[in-house]
Amino acid sequence: MPRSLRDKAIWITGASSGIGKALAVALAREGATLVLSARNREKLEEVRTACLDHTSKCLVRPLDLSKPSQLEEIVKSVQEETGGIDILINNAGQSQRSLAKETPLDIDRNMMELNFFSAVRLTKLVLPRMLQKQSGHIVVISSITGKFGFPLRTAYSAAKHALQGYFESLRAELKPDHVKVTIVSPGRIRTNISYNALTRNGQPYNKLDEGQASGMDPDVCASRIVKAIKKERKEILVGGKEIIMVYIRRFLPALYHRLVTKIKN
Questions:
Q1: Active-site entry in 156, 166, 195, 205
Q2: Does residue 205 carry a catalytic annotation?
Q3: pLDDT of 232-242, one tens digit each?
Q4: Which of 19, 68, 75, 146 could be cross-linked to 142 through a Cys-Cys bond (beta carbons 3.0 to 4.6 Å apart)?
Q5: Which CATH superfamily is domain 9-259 in?
Q6: pLDDT for the residue numbered 68
Q7: Mean pLDDT of the chain
Q8: d(CA 57, CA 197)
């Protein structure tokens, strides 16, 4: 039977837009106590206003995950205000639109730092309280590019593959401590992720991909993720027909290698 999320303290990173924003509103409807984090306070306040239509408990904690020096103090204050995080949703991240041969190594490192190490860092800081309580749930928003490689996404795909391996291993380690881990791998969701994607010179892509424009509505995506959290699913794929590529890669690798270079952004 799916568990109730009412009054659960849930911290969402990357909550100012896209999947994070949709998750915040969906979880507010469940009666959760929310902590919303992202860099842009103004946008977070807008999300908070939408959430307060459904829950009376919603905190805004602006956070730049590229600046780890501030993280420990913020985690401490969030834990004190909430009495301990029950569910951590590592959603913050940034995509990529650049060829490997044209991308400087520092861009690759930045992609790994934000998309992989920041989630690991925050998890390590939140985890001790969960271990103390012998309960908790860690959710990581990965990507189908964590299941297979894709052109113009080399460092992004590498980071998502790393998330998959790390949190899958963490799930096995935490079983005796009753802390759950859910890995979410979205496909094409209709968000601004391509607008904010990094290009070879470190500037945003500022375009809406054709595939992204026809992607799944983020509210539908969020609804499926919430269901997965309530059922304590270990893993979930979310998206449209592009999800089939995960299975083609697994069962028909020769076909995958023919198709992957022909897929439009």
A1: 156
A2: no
A3: 999 999 999 99
A4: 146
A5: NAD(P)-binding Rossmann-like Domain (3.40.50.720)
A6: 83
A7: 95
A8: 32
Beta partners for 37? 13
CA distance linking residue 74 with residue 60, whole number of Å: 11
Q: Using alpha carbons, select from 59, 56, 123, 127 the residue that is nearest to residue 91.
A: 123
pLDDT digits (tens, 9 = 90+) for 88-125: 999 999 999 999 999 999 999 999 999 999 999 999 99
d(CA 120, CA 108): 17
When pLDDT is averaged across residues 187-199 and rounded to a whole number, the result is 94
Does the pLDDT of residue 31 top 80, yes or no? Answer: yes
Domain ranges of the chain: 9-259
Distance between CA atoms of 162 and 236, rounded to whole angstroms? 17
Can you tell me the distance from the alpha carbon of 37 to that of 82, in angstroms, rounded to the nearest whole number?
Answer: 14
Strand partners, 183: 140, 235
Q: Residue written as tokens 């409807």?
A: 29
Tokens 């089939």 identify what position? Answer: 244
- In the structure encoding, which two tokens stand for residue 42, read together? 């103004």
